[in-house]
Design brief:
There is one protein chain. By secondary structure, this protein is an alpha+beta fold. It has a single domain, classed as Pnp Oxidase, Chain A (Roll), CATH 2.30.110. It has 5 helices and 9 strands, in the order H-E-E-E-E-H-E-E-H-H-H-E-E-E. Strands 1, 2, 3, 4, 5, 6, 7, 8 and 9 form a 9-stranded antiparallel beta sheet that branches. A hairpin with a 7-residue loop joins strand 7 and strand 8. The chain is globular and about 60 Å long. It starts with 28 loop residues before the first helix and ends with a strand.
Length: 217
């Protein structure tokens, strides 16, 4: 096996776009996240709401995948998925999760650790109906994370569902699909700095308040 770049260890970029100090951040980490997220949007970061979600399954084995943040609420971060998918099953067994946002254009990342719970059926219904019709049909057609024989199996299900709902604007949300809310207990804001002396400001939840600390890079 050969990688085209002959020296992977030599791939590096110096970070010099900004800095982060304790005096820069809000006392509320969700307010601070909203500020950074808006800056990512205005900077035209590609899919700024893409976050790596890590869950823990059987035998304490972790798994990660990218999901899309759909709302920032007063108490956490929400996304939607199939409850019967691997991540859906894993969080039902272990509600401790981690999430990561990486915005390379701003040389920033945000780490989140917390507990996850289902959103209300009302929230899930509202978001499901707001999706494009094709996405709603796709959510019904796909037995997410299950083994399927081939792509034709999936495409055939989509064709059948398109015929079934051809004249319907409202498509019932399947019970197996809905939202989750990550309620954070730890957030870390990372700003790249020159010579790998990065700024790391973390928020640790202690009872009902947040403690702000600086971490060595």
């Amino acid at each position: 096996m050969a990688i085209e770049h002959k020296d992977i260890a030599a791939i590096r970029q110096d970070y010099a776009l900004g800095n982060l100090s304790e005096s820069d951040v809000s006392n509320d980490p969700l307010v601070q996240f909203e500020k950074w997220f808006n800056e990512a949007v205005h900077s035209e970061v590609i899919e700024p709401n893409a976050m790596v979600l890590s869950t823990v399954g059987a035998f304490s084995l972790p798994s990660s995948r990218v999901v899309l943040l759909k709302d920032l609420k007063e108490n956490g971060f929400s996304f939607f998925t199939n409850y019967n998918s691997r991540k859906g099953i894993e969080v039902e067994g272990n509600p401790h999760v981690a999430a990561l946002f990486f915005w390379p254009e701003l040389q920033r990342q945000v780490r989140i650790e917390g507990l996850i719970e289902r959103l209300s059926e009302e929230d899930s219904n509202e978001y499901f109906q707001s999706r494009p019709k094709g996405s709603r049909i796709g959510a019904i057609a796909s037995p997410q994370s299950e083994t399927i024989p081939n792509r034709n199996f999936l495409e055939s299900r989509v064709v059948d569902l398109e015929k079934e709902f051809e004249n319907q604007d409202i498509i019932p949300r399947p019970e197996s699909w809905g939202g989750f809310l990550i309620k954070p207990i730890y957030l870390e804001f990372w700003q790249g700095r020159s010579s790998r002396l990065h700024d790391r400001i973390a928020f640790q939840k202690i009872e009902d308040s947040w403690k702000i600390i600086r971490l060595a890079p």
